[in-house]
């Protein structure tokens, strides 16, 4: 069965019956839409029910059981009450899930052609985001990566279509090696001579497209060089799409190529990204001490809450907890290797809890990580977040 609702933008949204009564995010305009409840199924017409029978009047009292036969009933009753009390305690400790867990993640930008049709639903997630269950505080993320290899259940390029990369005006294309993959990157330099501080800026979505480079221009205008790497499987590049895992290796390999550029100051390299790029920027600064500071704009910190309804993205076993954890910054919140600012828009409730918990766990370990809410939605929030990030990066030069 499925349920259907219509967004205010006019788009019809179809989801499996598990989404009934929940909010999902419109794949076109990203607005949350409440899915209708399932209609109750009629099992038997009330007029077909047999007439109720009145109880016959009893003429004698029912014999009372002997004391010895009452004992099992008394014990059973005590056990039932105990189980009820235990269930209430467990519910109070775990707490109800936040309503934001029912909102679909904007993992793919609303403008991408991948959203041309409603995505097939995945099984609902089974655990709430809670600090007690969400941090692998005793394990460093970089160390964990050396002990883990993702297992793909489907091998292909990015699920988001993309054209071959052409350098925007005023930029140059450079290449970098990530393992045995040769991949391109776009480099823009500010005016002036000498070596410049640089920002590795990771685009949103899963293909570089129109408007992505414009998002990074404020950094160039502020005196930073900017490099945007194209990752494996994107824009018809070689390699398999892995959703936030092997792509981290690409980001770090591109950074290594950037610091070798003669016009880049290798000791003044920062990283930032939007949406999917924000998640990767966070994972990269959990992995490497290369960066002086990092910023995430609407990045997903716990992908278990973000893959529901996004089956095209899930190329690994989604019920394997290790596959989820290794792609989720929240689980390694004590592994930040540089100061970081985690932004999202005031209208993006989906990101609020998971980002707040990630920052809180990091700060509890003495790390310089802040959760910041700025005006706007998934796209309009980028402008104020970028302005704050530029000032933040300048303070770390």
Q: Which blocks of ≥5 consecutive residues have pLDDT under 50?
A: 40-75, 88-104, 108-135
Arithmetic mean pLDDT? 80
Largest sheet data: 8 strands, mixed
**How helix-rich are the residues, as a percent range?**
25-40%
Number of E-type strands: 12
What are the key terms here?
alpha/beta; Rossmann fold; 12 strands
Structure, described:
The chain has 397 residues and is an alpha/beta fold. The chain has a domain at 130-394: Rossmann fold, CATH 3.40.50.1820. The protein is 26% helix and 18% strand. It has 9 helices and 12 strands. The strands form 3 sheets. An 8-stranded mixed beta sheet has the order 5-6-8-7-9-10-11-12, sandwiched between helices. A two-stranded antiparallel sheet has the order 1-2. The longest helix is centred in the N-terminal third of the chain and has 28 residues, at 67-94. It is globular. Mean pLDDT is 80; it is low at 40-75, 88-104 and 108-135.
Question: What's the short version?
Answer:
With 397 residues, the chain is an alpha/beta fold. It has nine helices and twelve strands.
How is this fold's topology laid out?
Blueprint: E1 2-6, E2 12-16, E3 23-25, E4 32-34, H1 67-94, H2 131-134, H3 141-146, E5 172-178, E6 181-188, E7 196-202, H4 217-221, E8 225-229, H5 246-259, E9 264-274, H6 276-287, E10 294-297, H7 321-325, E11 340-345, H8 349-364, E12 369-374, H9 382-394
Parallel strand pairs: 7-8, 7-9, 9-10, 10-11, 11-12
Antiparallel strand pairs: 1-2, 3-4, 5-6, 6-8
């Amino acid at each position: 069965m499925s349920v259907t609702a219509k967004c205010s933008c006019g788009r019809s949204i179809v989801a499996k019956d598990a989404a009934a009564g929940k909010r999902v995010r419109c794949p076109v305009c990203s607005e949350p839409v409440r899915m209708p409840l399932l209609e109750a199924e009629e099992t038997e017409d009330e007029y077909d029910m047999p007439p109720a029978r009145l109880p016959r009047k009893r003429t004698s009292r029912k014999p009372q059981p002997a004391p010895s036969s009452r004992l099992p009933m008394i014990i059973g009753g005590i056990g039932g009450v105990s189980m009820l009390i235990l269930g209430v305690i467990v519910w109070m400790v775990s707490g109800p899930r936040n309503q934001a867990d029912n909102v679909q993640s904007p993992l793919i930008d609303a403008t991408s052609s991948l959203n041309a049709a409603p995505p097939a639903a995945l099984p609902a997630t089974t655990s709430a985001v809670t600090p007690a269950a969400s941090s692998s505080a005793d394990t460093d993320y970089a160390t964990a990566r050396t002990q883990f290899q993702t297992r793909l259940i489907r091998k292909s390029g990015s699920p988001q279509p993309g054209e071959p990369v052409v350098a925007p005006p005023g930029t140059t294309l450079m290449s970098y090696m990530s393992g045995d993959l040769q991949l391109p990157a776009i480099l823009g330099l500010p005016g002036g001579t000498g070596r410049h501080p640089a920002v590795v800026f990771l685009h949103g979505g899963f293909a570089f497209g129109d408007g992505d480079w414009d998002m990074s221009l404020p950094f160039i205008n502020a005196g930073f060089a900017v490099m945007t790497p194209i990752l494996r499987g994107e824009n018809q590049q070689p390699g398999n799409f892995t959703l936030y895992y092997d792509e981290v290796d690409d980001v770090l390999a591109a950074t290594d190529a950037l610091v070798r550029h003669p016009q880049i100051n290798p000791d003044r390299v920062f990283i930032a990204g939007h949406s999917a790029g924000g998640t990767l920027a966070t994972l990269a600064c959990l992995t490497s001490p290369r960066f002086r500071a990092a910023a995430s704009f609407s990045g997903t910190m716990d992908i278990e809450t973000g893959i529901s309804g996004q089956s095209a993205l899930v190329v690994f076993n989604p019920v394997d907890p290790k596959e989820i954890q290794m792609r989720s910054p929240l689980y390694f919140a004590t592994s930040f290797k540089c100061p970081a600012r985690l932004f999202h828009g005031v209208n993006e409730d989906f990101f609020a809890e998971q980002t707040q918990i990630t920052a809180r766990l990091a700060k509890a370990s003495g790390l310089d990580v802040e959760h910041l809410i700025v005006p706007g939605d998934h796209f309009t929030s980028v402008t104020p977040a970028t302005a704050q990030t530029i000032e933040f990066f300048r303070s770390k030069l």
